[in-house]
Amino acid sequence: MTLAQALERARLRHPGAEAVVEGGTRLTYAELLARADAVAGGFAGLGVGRGDRVLLALRNRLEHVVAFWALERLGAVAVPVNPRLAPAEVAYVLGDAGARVVLAEEAAAPAVVPAVGDRGARLVWVGGGEAPPGAARFDALARPGAGPGPGPAESDLALILYTSGTTGRPKGVPRTHRNQWAGALAHVVQCGYEWGERTLGVMPLYHTMGIHALTSMVVVNGCFVCQPHFSAAGALRLIAEERLTALYLVPTLFYDLVHAPELAATDVSSVRKLAYAGAPMSAALTEACVKAFRPRVFVNHYGSTEIYTFSVRPDVHLKPGCAGRPGIHSALRVVTASTERRVGPDEVVPPGTKGEIIARLDSDEAFAGYWNRPDADARALREGWYFTGDLGWVDEEGELWVAGRVDDMIISGGENIHPVEVEEVLARHPAVRDVAVVGEPDPRWGERVVAFVVAASPELTAEALDAWCLAQPDLARFKRPRRFVFVDTIPRTASGKVLRRLLRERASAARADDPPEGA
Length: 519
Hints:
By secondary structure, the chain is an alpha/beta fold. 29% of the residues lie in helices and 24% in strands. The protein has helices at 3-13, 29-45, 62-74, 87-97, 109-119, 177-190, 208-219, 232-242, 251-258, 283-293, 374-380, 419-427, 462-471, 500-507, and strands at residues 18-22, 25-28, 53-57, 77-80, 101-104, 122-125, 136-137, 157-162, 172-176, 198-201, 223-226, 246-249, 273-276, 297-302, 311-313, 325-326, 332-335, 355-360, 381-382, 385-394, 400-405, 410-412, 415-417, 432-442, 446-455, 483-486.
């Protein structure tokens, strides 16, 4: 099935069900389909046809949802990007994707307008503010009765998502209608969704989590309640007022919700299902989420932009941090991890041994290769397997654990140190709100461990953290940080992944206190 067909089926099943809400505006499935088809006619009037790319530099707003579905109905390809990208980043994506039309709002104007002019693309202005000269207005784009035309095939591209770029320039990940429909179905099954779910639409629609939060609602005639700007207070208000039933967020946002002062006075009893992805969740935060929401379903979803689902762990509160077993479309292995040679998919490591996690490419959720990046294909795709770059191991019960990135491994004195294992120890300290670990060059050891810490208490010191590490039985002495840098925030991608390359750049210039050097 295509996404174009999926929206039509949802309208046929329950035309009066609420599909999307933003502020005081509510659209049923009948209204959403009619509006999407009218806007599809408007896109066609701008020369957009099947397979053409359209860049969306928008927040999670009603117009973004309508535009996305309009493009899917038309058979065009949505290319959503962060509306706050830098001008050079927008120019790169615009050129790489070859987008013919760009939708932008006021916040994106400083970056988008120059790029559009340089590339000769057509600009469509969304929302308030003064539109740049020559721009069409989204609110005048609709052509009621025009219709979307014959629509796409399952093998056609539905969208191109650009990766977060934790290691450099982002890569375009083409996703077909078959990929996206399979991912939506898997998300519904793996999160235990039922008819009429209502979810918080705050994960960005330029990210795979946001897209699947949206498309999964169509599967169950659910409602996507937009929150264009996240705030914990605003999210809690929407939970109470809209009686939201399902939350699919990165751990950082769950942290903000459970620590918000407004939580105690907010009725969150409608929330029955929690799921997180994008980054690990600590045992302490897992416990806090259970206490705050008392969910019936609590899922750790492990996947990527390239293949939506790798594995899922239901009832994750019973085994905090565990990534579980392969998803319904997935097959996984853990193989030898190496940054020095090309490892094959048959070099499987024994249970309990850390290695690189790889996933079969014959999944309906799997992409076929990067957009315009044969070099990236050569690194990541081998003999029918996708090499994720993630480190992990399988425990004695056959369940997967994720231990960071192969490229993030710190080699100190010839010993391998995985940042996640150090972060997990530091995160247990009651005065640590957030933490990230990187390696920095050291003339004697090759690299030494540096911890960037967001303190929950101003009294927290490097000496106290070093003593904490020394007292933990699950961290070898040589793995503990030799430098602590106290910061206000940890830089992360929209999906919650730590931007370690930025921390490495900051490490040499950061002011910090050194703990004792003795081993």
